[in-house]
Amino acid sequence: DIQMTQSPPSLSASLGDKVTITCQASQNINKYIAWYQQKPGKAPRQLIRYTSTLVSGTPSRFSGSGSGRDYSFSISNVESEDIASYYCLQYDNLRTFGGGTKLELK
Amino acid sequence: QVQLQQSGAELVKPGSSVKISCKASGYTFTSYDMHWIKQQPGNGLEWIGWIYPGNGNTKYNQKFNGKATLTADKSSSTAYMQLSSLTSEDSAVYFCARGVLDYWGQGVMVTVSS
Question: What is the pLDDT of residue A19?
Fold first, then answer.
């Protein structure tokens, strides 16, 4: 099974900052990675699929990149509504989530 | 629009089983995998498995073999997950999600308690 190592587990940012989260797969996942935002009590919301394709409705301050085993997700100009937990998901072979990153305000 | 409507919260006793549902609408039910995901309180997301309603094929995370059983009813566009031999470790929110996990149900809270 493919393992996904996500870091950092938590992140503290000020409004307007740029933040980056990374996920490393245990093997090549051929860019089949998606990124999710989850707020308390809600289902996760897909923001990005296939490494860098923004899902309809995702603000342009969100971005993704990577290839092979290594991927990153960034939020430029963090806004208050971005305070949430974020997860990566590989879907190259079955499905595996990263451990999550909790984004908090500094 | 695509919607996944899950059944209500469950309070169940240790050792028992529970079956939760996920009713799909707004797309062709038999054309997409349906996945199930577990989230324990304060924890991350864990993929349980999927079913392809078109032919009933299933695939499970090895961790959930024997714990979860996935089925689907094409006539009602509803996917089901049965959890058996419940313990406190099964207390969690369970989500269904379509295909590349683009659409999600609202989640079902299952509480295992005597």
Answer: 98
In the prediction, which pLDDT does B103 show?
97
Q: Say if strands A85-90 and A101-105 run parallel, antiparallel, or are unpaired.
A: antiparallel
Percent of chain A at pLDDT > 90 equals 99
Q: What is the pLDDT of residues B45-104, one digit of tens each?
A: 999 999 999 999 999 999 999 999 999 999 999 999 999 999 999 999 999 999 999 999
Local structure of A86: helix, strand or coil? strand
User: How far off is chain B from A84, nearest CA to CA, in Å?
Assistant: 13
Distance from CA of residue B86 to its chain's centroid? 15
User: Which residues in chain A touch residue B106, judged by CB atoms under 8 angstroms apart?
Assistant: 43
The Cα–Cα gap between A66 and A50 comes to 10
d(CA B87, CA B111): 9
The pLDDT of residue A94: 94
Whether A99 and chain B come into contact, CB under 8 Å, resolves to yes
Q: Name chain B contacts of A43, Cβ cutoff 8 Å.
A: 95, 97, 104-107
pLDDT score for B88: 97
Residue with tokens 């990005």: A48
* Nearest residue in chain A measured CA to CA from B46: A97
**Closest C-alpha to B23, from B74, B58, B69:** B74
In angstroms, the CA B69 to CA B108 distance is: 16
The residue of A95, A96, A97, A102 whose CB has the most chain B CBs within 10 angstroms, and thus the best one to mutate to test that interface, is A95
